[in-house]
């Protein structure tokens, strides 16, 4: 059984003159352990698809199944629980909370998941160590470089032991050296069994993937 499956997914934004067909009947199936890169020109619907597969957004039409469970019937609260239990997200803009230290940012998903404080601290420290930031755990985001912030975001994404990491242009704001560190980390996580679904328009990054899905005008044009 596929880990994630999208069937005939449509996403239509706006109405009337401003109507945008962002996704036009996407069929996609991703198995556990894959590292999938979603590529295609700007505006073709990559982020929209990633957000729908990650249950951050809902399709206008069509179904998303996670491990065979139909998610489109869930309410927002059920989707939030599902996201927290099985997914981690990494974005181009990092989306760290500025008023929290690196350690507190990584602890946050565990607070939402009602883990006790001692466990949270210990795990957050371990994860920050794993991404090479043992010396920076009490730093605030604005005291860290872009690459370091993205590594905090990766540690945060790992907090609740996700099965899947959704990454939207994870190196889009990084120089090539920091970008490589982030990509090597993602690869390492994939080798440990975490499924990775990444949006990118960088051909070099797509080389890290085991499969490349190309999109154009809201449709998938090739599954390599
Ligand atoms: N909230 C929204 N409201 C209206 N239109 C939207 C919204 N989000 C995206 N769109 C439109 O949907 C289409 C697909 O956008 P999307 O961000 O998914 O593309 P993308 O391939 O990720 O682009 P990029 O590579 O530039 O990030 C675009 O035409 C975009 O303008």
Automatic annotation (TrEMBL):
Sequence ranges assigned to domain ABC transporter in this UniProt record: 4-224
Gene Ontology molecular function: any one: ATP hydrolysis activity
Gene3D superfamilies: P-loop containing nucleotide triphosphate hydrolases (3.40.50.300)
Coiled coil: none
GO cellular component: membrane protein complex
Origin superkingdom: Archaea
Pfam families in alphabetical order: ABC_tran
Keywords: ATP-binding, Nucleotide-binding, Transport
CDD domains tied to this protein: ABC_MJ0796_LolCDE_FtsE
Entry's family note: Belongs to the ABC transporter superfamily.
Record protein name field: ABC transporter related protein
Organism: Methanocaldococcus lauensis
């Amino acid at each position: 059984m596929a880990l994630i499956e999208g069937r005939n997914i449509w996403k239509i934004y706006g109405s009337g003159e401003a109507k945008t067909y962002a996704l036009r009947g996407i069929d996609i199936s991703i198995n556990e352990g894959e590292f999938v890169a979603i590529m295609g020109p700007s505006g073709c619907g990559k982020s929209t698809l990633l957000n729908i597969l990650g249950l951050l957004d809902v399709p206008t039409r069509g179904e998303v199944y996670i491990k065979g469970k139909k998610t489109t019937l869930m309410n927002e609260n059920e989707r939030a629980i599902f996201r927290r239990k099985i997914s981690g997200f990494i974005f181009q803009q990092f989306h760290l909370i500025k008023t929290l230290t690196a350690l507190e940012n990584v602890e946050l998903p565990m607070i939402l998941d009602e883990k006790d404080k001692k466990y949270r601290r210990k795990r957050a420290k371990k994860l920050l160590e794993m991404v090479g930031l043992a010396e920076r755990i009490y730093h605030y985001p604005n005291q860290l470089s872009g690459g370091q912030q993205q590594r905090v975001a990766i540690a945060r994404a790992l907090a609740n032991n996700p099965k899947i990491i959704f990454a939207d242009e994870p190196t889009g704001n990084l120089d090539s050296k920091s970008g490589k560190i982030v990509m090597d980390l993602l690869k390492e996580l994939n080798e440990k069994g975490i499924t990775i679904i990444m949006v990118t328009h960088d051909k070099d990054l797509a080389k890290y993937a085991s499969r490349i899905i190309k999109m154009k005008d809201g449709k998938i044009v090739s599954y390599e």
